[in-house]
Amino acid sequence: MDNNAYQVYEDEIQALEEEIKLLTEKYEEIQQESTFFSEEEILKSIKSFQRETQGESRGHESPSDLKAQLESLETDLSFLMKLTGFQFTSHSKKTVERTRDRTVQKHRLSGKCHSLSFQLEFQLLEMQSKEKVSSVVTDLNIIMESGEDSGVSKFVSSVEERGDLLTFFRSLSTYAEWFEHRRRTFLHFK
Question: Is 68 domain-assigned?
Fold first, then answer.
């Protein structure tokens, strides 16, 4: 009976040690994120946040104003989706590394362009110097249902090698639009 009681206590101690370790790691991560910003930037953010919350408590924006803004944003989004053909279905972002002058984030994005589905995974490396921030896409992985079109496969491979997201989105938009036209045309003759 004594061994069982000791084992229960040992298990509890081990669980608490693991919880302490996880909390310590989380605390260090938060500390690392907070050291990324200068004290001046933190104070500006706090003052800005206080002004915003005071403005909200005074009721500067009524629910009808917020509803009008939301409707306007939804209209703009609908217009952009019709214009480009892109409809994003999911997006996730995870910070992999953060230092004072460098941030690495991993992004996952999926959606459709007209009737073509796509998924993207890439890392975004942001480097900050005194006066500018530069961003570089690395480890780009594109998954598309290209069917039997080897040209699309070659294009996707070259875009992945260069890490050129802008070219991918521009070309996919044009290709998907014409793909949709061809599909409708062939359906018409069937």
Answer: no
DSSP assignment of 128-175 equals E-SS-EEEEEEEEEEEE--TT-HHHHHHHHHHHHHT-HHHHHHHHHHH
Q: Which DSSP string do the residues of 102-137 spell out, in sequence order?
A: EEEEEEEEEEEETTEEEEEEEEEEEEE-SS-EEEEE
Q: Is residue 44 part of a domain?
A: no
Q: Does residue 142 contact residue 118 with C-beta atoms inside 8 Å?
A: yes
Please check the confidence at residue 55 and state whether its pLDDT lies above 90: no
pLDDT at 59 over 60: no
Helix (H, G, I), strand (E, B) or coil at 59: coil
Decide: 90 and 107 in contact? Cβ < 8 Å.
no
Domain count for the chain: 1
Instruction: Give the chain's radius of gyration (CA, Å).
Output: 25
Determine the structural domain holding residue 152 and report its residue range.
Answer: 85-188
